[in-house]
Amino acid sequence: MAVLTQTDFEQMTLHRRGKVRDVYDLGHSLLIVVTDRISAFDVIMKDAIPHKGEVLNQISAFWFEKMTDIVPNHVLSTDPQNYPDVCRPHTAILRKRSMLVQKAEALPVECIVRGYLSGSAWNDYKRNGSVAGIKLHPGLQESEQLPEPIFTPSTKAESGHDQTIPFSEMANRIGNELSQRIRDTCLSIYRQAQKIAEEKGIIISDTKMEFGLRDGELLLIDELLTPDSSRFWPMTQYRPGGPQVSYDKQFLRDYLISINWDNNTPPPPLPQEIIQQTSSKYIEALKLFTDISV
User: Tens-of-pLDDT digits for all 294 residues of the chain?
Assistant: First the structure.
């Protein structure tokens, strides 16, 4: 299957190339193109995942639309026919995997909501009984549902790993009032998304969000509730007490852990079986949430 690992559009100014997204500056707006690149432990793999970009873009579009009653977002259009003329020669590539968005000043924090004790939060809890400065009850199991969802912000590293920070540090960085508003917004989005997901038979263990300011208005930006930014578990297979079956890139992370990759040396080539199974999990997530097939 063909994959898109990078774009190089003539007549457009490349604003930045992230781990997954190529972003072009179109003057009054930005064009976000979601490639099939995949990262794990903040490192871009050598191999790409077929259909991944299409899945991420369409799931984000689905969730952005669902959350407009909670907070505005940056999306102007996901239809290349509505993009500026400079995009027209690339319509075939842009279809299903791009967004035209408003410019915004991105805030320097990652906004994470956790409803279940998994991943780095589980590791933190094992070490000191707390996550991001929030003390949790003793005796919790891995993947156990928390009594209430918790907000655990982190740094937004330009390179390397993001670091979890307490809410007080987020308030120091961007202001207490704005931090409280973002925390409340994130918790509302998570709760609304969890209700929708449960109807589809899916648990949202945790999810990461990003925000920006445009003329003083708070906007939800980047991506939303995708398999890259969230952990999705099938309800029928949920068993607290250990790792869970997932519809996200935890499958890839687990493979890399199994071969003892140290996260610092160049990433290993991925076996075709891992590439295909990862692609299938992303495609399944898209189908479950949106009824869209790639």
Answer: 589 999 999 999 999 999 999 999 999 999 999 999 999 988 999 999 999 999 999 999 999 999 999 999 999 999 999 999 999 999 999 999 999 999 999 999 999 999 999 999 999 999 999 999 999 999 999 999 999 999 999 998 765 567 899 999 999 999 999 999 999 999 999 999 999 999 999 999 999 999 999 999 999 999 999 999 999 999 999 999 999 999 988 889 989 999 999 988 999 999 999 999 999 999 999 999 999 988
Contact status, residue 56 vs residue 20, Cβ threshold 8 Å: yes
Fold classification of 106-249 is: D-amino Acid Aminotransferase; Chain A, domain 1 (3.30.470)
Task: Decide if 12 contacts 90 (C-beta within 8 A).
Answer: no
* Total-model pTM: 0.95
* Topology of the domain covering 13-103: Phosphorylase Kinase; domain 1 (3.30.200)
